[in-house]
Amino acid sequence: MHIAVAGNIGAGKTSLTELLSRHYKWESNFEDVIDNPYLDDFYNHMERWSFNLQIFFLRSRFKQLESFKDKKVNVIQDRTIYEDAYIFAPNLHAMGLMNLRDYENYKNLFHLMESSVKGPDLLIYLRSSIPNLVNKIHKRGRVYENSISINYLSRLNERYEAWITKYDKGKLLIIDVDDIDFVENKKDLKTIIELIDKELK
């Protein structure tokens, strides 16, 4: 079984992945943020480092998906390979931060990788408003995220909403996280778990 948690920056993907992993006693797989050698550079000079960053994430997530096949265990994944390809890379290209040559190269590589992997059994999409995302990002205080603009988050949110309406890789559960706190409120987490159990059955 493979569950993936999707959502914009600050939506709560990592926290929910950790909590669900603990509850179901499944293996958790996280975005490679700490060991990503491009992240700081990207936020300081997006145009120069966007292609490098996206290739790093693409390789990292493809490697995760390949490892799931080998391990044959139940896994919960923080962010999907599809978000890189359908949200972050095209957004960078649309903003003029990734040139057409690099973007086409990236897309061709993604399609090659996509042909050998399958989507998660259940995708959990954490839907959030921009004010909620900004609040969460400031609260967690990651230095490299200080320069993220509201415009950038808004563009990503629009792409997430467009992607999720056409999502067809498997089961989908949408959770609006604006008015819940599944980290501090056990009742909110219990509600989410009940929704997941319903989908898994």
Polypeptide structure, described:
- This protein has 201 residues and is an alpha/beta fold.
- The protein has a single domain (2-200), classed as Rossmann fold.
- Helix content is 57%, strand content 12%.
- It has eight helices and five strands, in the order βαβααβααβααβα.
- It has helices at 13-24, 39-44, 46-71, 81-94, 100-114, 130-140, 150-165, 186-200; strands at residues 2-7, 27-29, 75-78, 122-127, 171-176.
- It has a five-stranded parallel sheet with strand order 2-3-1-4-5, sandwiched between helices.
- The termini are close together.
- The model has no long low-confidence stretch (mean pLDDT 91).
Compact summary:
This protein has 201 residues and is an alpha/beta fold. Helices cover 57% and strands 12% of the residues. The chain has a single domain (2-200), classed as Rossmann fold.
